[in-house]
Amino acid sequence: MKYHVHFYVNGDAYDLDVPANKTMLDVLRDDLFLTGTKEGCGAGECGACTVIVDDVPLNACLVLAPELDGVHITTVEGLSDGPKLSPLQQSFIKHGALQCGFCTPGFLMSATALLNENPHPTREEIIDSISGNLCRCTGYKRIVEAIEEIAARGQTAETQE
Amino acid sequence: MKYVGQSIERVDAIRKVTGQAQYVGDFHMPRMLYAQVKRSPYPHAKIISIDVSKAEKLPGVRAVITGECYTKRCGLYLEDKNFLANKTVKYQGEAVAAVAAETAEIAQEACDLIEVVYEELPAVTNAIDGMKPDAPLIHPDLHTYKVAPIFFPKPHTNISHHYKLRKGDVDKAFQECDYVAEHTYYIPHVQHVPLEPHVAIAQYEYDGKLTVWASTQSPYAVRQALSVAFEIPLNKLRVISPYVGGGFGSKAGTTIEGIIIPLAMRCKGRPVKLQYSREDEFQNSYVRQGLHCKIKTGVKKDGRIHAVKNEFVWDGGAYTEYGVNIVKAGGFASAGPYNIDNVWTDSYCVYTNHPVGGPYRGFGMCEIHFAIEQNIDIVAKEIGMDPVEMRRINGLRVGDKTCMGETMVVSGYHECLEEVIKDIGYGEKSESTNPRKVRGKGIAAGWKSPSMPTNAGSAAIIRMNEDGTFFLMTSGQEIGQGSDTALTQIAAETLDVDPKLITIRTGDTDHTPYEWQTVASRTTYCAGNAVKLACEDLKKKILELAQIKLGAYKRDLEFKDGYVVHKIYTDRKVPLSEFALGLAFDDGSGVGGPAIGVGTFTLENNINYDKETGIGEHPVAFWTIGVNGAEVEVDLDTGEVKVLRMVSCFDAGKVINPETFCAQSEGAMVQAMGTALFEELILKNGHILNKNFVDYKIPTADDMPELDVKYIEHAEPTGPYGARGVGEPLMVPGAPAIANAIYDAIGVRFNRMPITAEEVLKALKEKANK
User: Fold this and answer.
1) At the N or C end, where does chain B have fewer CB atoms within 10 A?
2) ipTM of the assembly?
3) B145 in any annotated domain
4) Does residue B582 sit in the same domain as residue B613?
């Protein structure tokens, strides 16, 4: 049985018929070809598939496709305004907060959700917000510093410079 | 220098923060099929029969293969591996059959329908037991396997390599010592945990062309192994490797590719994709080999280490085609970065019915240094000397001989040591405000050389476009370490052009030139040398033409900011772009042709070691040496260890990009901390008990200590701009530094990783009861 869902990704409306056992992650990656959202474990443990669903960061691998109906999703593809990067994306580059890049979209989404809700998080709040995202390359230091810079500037992550 | 030594922005940064960097898993192709693998539930069993008839009849199934169809073995150094089990299964999870179907779900259902009858065999689940004469043989035909001539399998045993190092006379030397002690250590299996699990796609076209898109560190090594296994000529086998989501060694050599090629060959031109799950990744890619380690140390009253006798028994797992070289590398470095006259080492690679051991960042060094660097502290304490003093006395200096008899031409050991002593505040006690928490500081050193065939090669091509921009082509693989950026900087420096004018292209065996593998911390050094040579070749060709154009001798001309400029009359200059298609004359004729530079690099005089003694004058390209310091806080009530601070100082030769160097150093320290404190692949009777992130914990942002990175630069004589490899060495001293800090805090020595809260608490109770 398929479910009809109407939802938005990065502001664009989509109508799809989805099977009950498909995940939001598979819809994003395999139906909409939004492959910036990554699958690292498929079990909600690594955070590589983090997207923002109605302002809340979620692991897309844990959400079933029928639940897409009526939601607004932001993925990493929606962070920049075309080639104009968000302040947080720029800060990740400036601080060298990425290496292999596979976990990077997930970190950007977790941190963007945090900064949208709380423009001046403390270091502890920043660390807490990304503690569900695993990174094997960086040791996290530069990721935390990149987010801290935006937190200090008091810009929401999606405000363009 | 203008571009080398500068923290230029990573060339892959924008793609990676926008989600536009494409990894193999992101590729969708028309009419793509999906593969799944049927795996063995037993660690060691004979395959009596495989019935695939039900699977083949399932609607949507397009191909089913078993190991019977492909019996040819392959391997990097020792040809002991089948991609699908043939006659016996040798570890739990080994592939016995594979299916390609219209969806991954159908393929999985088909795998479940494959009926395999096994006869279970006694399993070897401990490397020490595996060496015993009555141990069940995992590879009874070992004596018939093809092997590289520097490895020595023992026929009719489970020992696939025995490396011997015999320097000086250890027996006599021990008698001359004032103090002799023996200690044992155990390092369990761990997994690399790249965030991107292995994935590959293969497509077979009817003209015999086979294309593989793989998440791999080694497109050329994959091509070579697959060519041997499936008898495909190299001009018909193309391996493409786009961005790789972390490797740490797990994506070196071949793993997943050998399963999808035979499937693709039966799928009528349709691409077939196989994506590992996280469970597969823990079980079926590579794991770091376990190590049983025994070190006997003899010292003189003055603190000089006079003799060392090591026994390393490596738990190589079911196949050791790659692992034999880790065992060799461990033997090469077995005395640590110390000047010791008498060294005896036996390093054994032992087959077990465990997951396949393979290269992991450090390539044996993290394992042996956990022992060597704790051993220094233990022995120092036993003779009443400060451990850093013992390191000062014994650390390798320029002109000293390594344990292999090679003369050190560069060594930053002592400078790195002093830098870390100062930075960590060694000897200064710091105290927690909580009386139930105690703090300690520890130091450890480490060294590593690139462990690769002595003649491993690299090639690079630089092409100039009509507008004076460039394409740089190599097959050094960007796996996160920043090689695309570093190689671009080397090219920019050599040509004296803005790095933004250079686009690097890698990872396509049909189009980018040869690179042995992206392993061994060799890319900046080997591929970097090839890039430099390619750019020098291009410069030479352009300067020939520039002589005509500028009417000056080439010795008076130089490349500067995108121009050929006269060194004295600097207003006489021509933009490089004017030479892009050769030199055109007023009469319409031209000379030179399109501008292209070629560079190839093999380190010369890199010679194999002596089989009997393990000694070699120049068996490795270089040694990278460095030191870590750690400060920890131990909770006396819970046993929990919190690493408060880690500091690192390495002799990098020349740091091409300080920011990516520091970033790699930080990542390496945290990765080392994970192995020191929590990571272990728990194996029970050959079964892995923790194949997921809930039960196998890697460090999170919560665990991150304060990190401080320093470096010194004593140029590597053969390195590009003096650079030597650092990616792996950076991880080597981290775990023993933490173990030494824990000892400093609570006075308990742990000779086994990981040092979990449970282990600490147990040890604290035992100590209190004494």
Assistant:
1) C
2) 0.97
3) no
4) no
